Automatic annotation (TrEMBL):
It comes from Streptomyces katrae. Residues 3-163 form the AAA domain. GO terms for molecular function: ATP binding; ATP hydrolysis activity. The keyword Nucleotide-binding applies. Gene3D superfamilies: P-loop containing nucleotide triphosphate hydrolases. It holds the Pfam family AAA_31. This is Cobyrinic acid a,c-diamide synthase.
Length: 248
């Protein structure tokens, strides 16, 4: 049975794609079969992060009926890790914006991919905020990993996303991202759980080495012994503890 995890945030730049790429790498390194789909059609990232070669075969091509989802899943240099890039180039996006597409193709594609590649875990990256792709991805999820910075505007969106995920009957896990130095982790954890009724799956500090990587490499590969990688593992453990991820 494939476990589907959606990584989402209300505002952009919280570290969704970076965290997703690291979780995917760690899961694959632990022997799990992992699929990653970049549903961020507006600003794709995972093709660059995973070094996917340009060319036909992307989520956009699938949504336009130009290829099967299986054909859009690219092998990566990591055994057992497959990536479906959002799009390659802008032509397909222009077309999708002009003609629209059947959103039902998204859950159908996720399911087919999970089945055809015998995935243990399917990770879905999203564009920030609420749009067709992110809401549909949440509708297919077992867990929504909600990333937020310690910022009033980010946090106001958390409430909205938690409510939506609850209506979609998927479990929720919160991650505080880019936490400034000196943050009292225990106090933050207690407060988050009290305010949102949703456990904090992890607190990720702001790490300059991560920002300086320039998206050239995935952090866990470049700095396998860094404490931040330990925090990624903590998130994975929290996601594995199925009953504890959310009180929904
Ligand atoms: N913990 C961290 N510390 C420092 N920099 C980070 C951290 N996490 C991510 N970054 C950096 O922040 C930038 C934005 O990260 P990323 O693209 O993963 O965010 P995102 O939420 O996916 O953005 P978008 O909403 O545009 O899709 C990247 O340059 C990344 O390297
Ligand atoms: Mg992103």
């Amino acid at each position: 049975m494939t476990r589907t995890i959606v990584v989402h945030s209300h505002r952009g730049g919280t570290g969704k794609s970076s965290v997703l790429a690291n979780l995917a790498l760690l899961l694959a390194a632990a022997g799990r079969r992992v699929g990653v789909v970049d549903t961020d059609l507006q600003s794709p990232t995972l093709d660059l992060l995973f070094g996917v070669a340009p060319g036909a075969g992307s989520l956009a091509d699938y949504l336009l009926g130009r290829c099967e989802i299986e054909a859009a899943a690219r092998r990566t240099s990591v055994p057992g890790l497959y990536v479906v890039p959002a799009r390659t180039g802008t032509a397909a996006l222009r077309e999708l914006m002009a003609t629209g597409y059947d959103v039902g193709l998204l859950p159908e594609g996720f399911e087919r991919l999970a089945h055809s590649h015998a995935l243990d875990v399917l990770l879905l990256d999203t564009h920030a905020g609420l749009n067709n792709e992110s809401v549909t991805a949440m509708g297919s999820a077992d867990v929504v990993l909600i990333m937020t910075r310690a910022d009033r505007i980010d946090l106001s969106g958390v409430e909205e996303t938690i409510a939506l995920a609850g209506r979609l009957a998927c479990r929720r896990a919160l991650v505080l991202s880019m936490a400034p130095e000196g943050v009292d982790h225990e106090a933050v954890r207690r407060r988050a759980e009290e305010v949102y009724g949703t456990p904090l799956a992890g607190i990720l500090p702001y790490v300059p080495e991560m920002a300086a990587l320039y998206g050239e490499r995935i952090f866990a590969e470049a700095f396998p012994d860094h404490p931040l990688v330990g925090e990624f593992r903590t998130i994975l453990t929290a996601l594995d503890a199925r009953d504890e991820v959310s009180r929904a």
